[in-house]
Amino acid sequence: MTAHNNVPRTLPRFSSTFDPHTLAEIRRAAATGIYDIRGGGTKRKLPHFDDLLFLGASVSRYPLEGYREKCGTDVVLGTRFAKKPIHLRTPVTIAGMSFGALSANAKEALGRGATAMGTSTTTGDGGMTPEERKSSQTLVYQYLPSRYGMNPDDLRKADAIEIVIGQGAKPGGGGMLLGQKITERVAGMRTLPAGIDQRSACRHPDWTGPDDLEIKIEELRELTDWEKPIYVKVGASRPYYDISLAVKSGADVVVLDGMQGGTAATQDVFIEHVGLPILAAIRPAVQALQDLGMHRKVQLIVSGGIRNGADVAKALALGADAVAIGTAALVALGDNDPVHEAEYEALGTTAGAYDDWHEGKDPAGITTQDPVLSARLDPVKAGRRLANYLGVLTLEAQTIARACGKSHLHNLEPEDLVALTIEAAAMAGVPLAGTEWIPGKGGTY
Amino acid sequence: MNAQATAPLAADLTFDLADQPLRDLNAALHKAGVETNARRWHVLNPNGRHAVAVGINAPLEIEIAGHVGYYCAGMNQQARVTIQGNAGVGVAENMMGGFVHVKGDASQAAGATAHGGMLLIDGNAGARCGISMKGVDIIVKGSIGHMSAFMGQAGSLIVFGDAGDALGDSLYEAKLFVRGAVKSLGADCIEKDMRDEHKALLAEKLAAAGLAGTVDVSEFKRYGSARRLYNFHIDNVDAY
Ligand SMILES: Cc1cc2nc3c(=O)[nH]c(=O)nc-3n(C[C@H](O)[C@H](O)[C@H](O)COP(=O)(O)O)c2cc1C
User: Fold this and answer.
1) Which of A125, A215, A266, A271 could form a disulfide with A98 if both were Cys (CB 3.0 to 4.6 A apart)?
2) What are the structural domains, with CATH classification, of chain B?
3) What b/e readout covers A128-160, taking b as 16+ CB neighbours within 10 angstroms?
4) Probe ligand 1: pick from A167, A234, A256, max atoms within 8 Å of CB?
5) Is the ipTM of this complex over 0.90?
């Protein structure tokens, strides 16, 4: 186009379809021949808890006094079969994140923060470290397809066992830990050569399908004398059926992780395009529990993009018994903190957007195995920040619950909620704000 | 627990699963050494029960008179377990140590993810024998099914008979020795030279299983990882 005097020009216009990010990705793929791998959860905007609002009490409902009237927050997990269920003071738990993906100091900090607030933390793909067992009062031991480091001594030391079938960030995908992070210690715990790219299996090696899962659960119970709660964790994809089958297989607790859920390292295309947002997955899961007469008997823990006390309250109101946090816990420890901005820029990114966790160069010392970087994270101070944050989540959830007139967080219910968008109304099964309309009501899963 | 199980200093102990619950058997085995000094246990009428004798952490000798279901001797740490029959899926899964002997055939995923000890199978083993093995030694006197030693990380798998399709697919450092025919090799698994050190290793494992001299170690071929998939490389994309 040639410029003529006084003729208005068409401004350069980017395509919505081929936006700058998309163009850059095409160029990157063309130059390297490999997909993008990164950490974290989905970055695109999804229907989420922000699309819901609480109604609060008024003439027809009676609120509780903010600071004086009690609003309980405790939760008991594993009441179905386990001889020793878990008692937590707050329904916000720390999700499974592996030693290997995270530094030993980060794992210790998670244990310290969770313990200070009376909640649980979880191991991950790579086994249990003595540091995290020591720093965690209540520790959930993950039983993953890779079975790295799996052993009966640690199983007996655990307070609960979580059979991981999938993760929200990558339902149907296995783990990935690239060579940069496979140090001698990590390799030793996983019985692998140091420095190799480790891709863990996506299916369990010794069972397939729900009938086998039932037998596997029986074995784990027999192994541990029926003491420990057994969780089954699934990524959100077909929640009604997956939760039904997990319950039928004998789970004490089911963990449902939505697509916003973080990961240590996965293909970006997987993170962004596979699975359901957690908002869409909770109601079908709860419906499954209700249809089996198991709601509140088999506890439901949900995760994927939980950030504040409102998210916690909304998840519980939709029928969850507890939530789990991964990404937010890492941010509380110091992940993506602007104090490291110069270093993030040197890595070609900026604070808040850093997601190359698989490279092991985390300036905050969290998603790394580099001893110098790891040493930057003080597990005591970071643990205190996490405890503070967990405290705020709990207080915020209580604030909302009291406003809705509830003496316990578990008394929150879908009737306390409305949705801001038609999508959220349909997914969460609550009315569009200002209407009595619940789109899709009466349908089946 | 039954009266027998609590009797102190009993040298032998019999547990009949036809009229005693499996739960009591496993609980008694877990307390062995604390509540009983019995070292030899006889388990009668297993009748294909799952999770028989799992999680044992004492140097017991357990003789199971019949066929067992899934996960027999799972996560064994110290016991010598003999199964006088066939074993279902995942026998000795995730074993850490000790010795598990299947007198009959074993189903799929025998010795899956096991870290140590020895698993001896007199008959054949099904698919995925030694899947994700992490240090165990597995000897199969018969043949093994497809996808055996998939992602095998460490330990040795010794097969007197044949191996099915895709042996050692995505193998890490587990060592595979097969005397018979291999239907096909999985991604990144190759035949390797059988040098004297490997013959010595094989002889040592056979001796440990009480099989010294029963087969000629020079009749075996050795298979291992080509280590081409250890770090992602775009030229290997077809293999992923
Ligand atoms: C660094 C990191 C490592 C993770 N490692 C594991 C793992 O080993 N096993 C697992 O089941 N989930 C793993 N996850 C997923 C979390 O358990 C959890 O499902 C997710 O983080 C929850 O979503 P949120 O991050 O939005 O809170 C990991 C997540 C992160 C961020």
Assistant:
1) A125
2) 13-239 (2.160.20.60)
3) bbebbbebbbbbbbbbbbbbbbbbbebbbebbb
4) A167
5) yes
